[in-house]
Amino acid sequence: MVFLFRHQDFGKNKLWLANKSKIILGIDPGTLVMGYGLILVEGSKASLLEMNVLKLSRHKDHYERLQLIHARVNELIREHKPVSCAIEAPFFGKNVQSMLKLGRAQGVAIATAMQAGVPVTEYSPKKVKQSITGNGNADKEQIWQMLQRILHFNERPDFLDASDALAVAVCHFFQESSVLPDTSKAKGWDKFLQQHPDRIVR
């Protein structure tokens, strides 16, 4: 089952929000599963708009997978009209062939966004973790729990690729808006929580 979450009130207020807000698309590229997440930014606050995955494993041909990535990213941009796209940089492993395929998947996603006029920013996995949790070595569960606090929702995805993509979008939101202080030190994150008590779920 594919996890899908949509902001329930967005459709009703789409016209008003068009003038008061912006949307950021986050992508976690993959050759078997591509995660994506969209957040709605209103001033200094962000909320979850949609997150999901594109499952590619049943398609054996690698070039067909690349075409599907292009089509889905293009569809997301047409539907939501994001002002920017954030994408996670590949994690370098030992398998050269896997890295080559992953690099192609990322390149297709980047090229699709750029062709549509959407600027793209790339973030390393460590940078994303640092921005979300204050810890560059945080695990996926820690990232997910912090995303729930930041964006105020309780649902859990079936695939963590979706939450990884959402984390990239939130990371870009923090970097772009300077909402989040330097989290290289624990006190920076503590200060952020003190300044934004509404983002703490008790």
Automatic annotation (TrEMBL):
Catalytic residues identified in the record: 28, 88, 161
SUPFAM superfamilies: Ribonuclease H-like
Location(s), subcellular: Cytoplasm
The protein's Enzyme Commission number: 3.1.21.10
Source species, domain of life: Bacteria
GO CC term (a single one): Holliday junction resolvase complex
Cofactor binding notes: Binds 2 Mg(2+) ion per subunit.
Keyword DNA repair: yes
Swiss-Prot/TrEMBL catalytic activity: Endonucleolytic cleavage at a junction such as a reciprocal single-stranded crossover between two homologous DNA duplexes (Holliday junction)
Record-level Gene Ontology MF annotations: crossover junction DNA endonuclease activity; DNA binding; magnesium ion binding
Binding-site list for Mg(2+) 1: 28, 161
UniProt keyword list: Cytoplasm, DNA damage, DNA recombination, DNA repair, DNA-binding, Endonuclease, Hydrolase, Magnesium, Metal-binding, Nuclease
Record carries keyword Protease: no
Any one GO BP annotation for this protein: DNA repair
Requisite cofactors: Mg(2+)
Function statement: The RuvA-RuvB-RuvC complex processes Holliday junction (HJ) DNA during genetic recombination and DNA repair. Endonuclease that resolves HJ intermediates. Cleaves cruciform DNA by making single-stranded nicks across the HJ at symmetrical positions within the homologous arms, yielding a 5'-phosphate and a 3'-hydroxyl group; requires a central core of homology in the junction. The consensus cleavage sequence is 5'-(A/T)TT(C/G)-3'. Cleavage occurs on the 3'-side of the TT dinucleotide at the point of strand exchange.
Subunit note: Homodimer which binds Holliday junction (HJ) DNA. The HJ becomes 2-fold symmetrical on binding to RuvC with unstacked arms; it has a different conformation from HJ DNA in complex with RuvA. In the full resolvosome a probable DNA-RuvA(4)-RuvB(12)-RuvC(2) complex forms which resolves the HJ.
NCBIfam families given in the database record: ruvC
Family: Belongs to the RuvC family.
Protein's name in the database: Crossover junction endodeoxyribonuclease RuvC
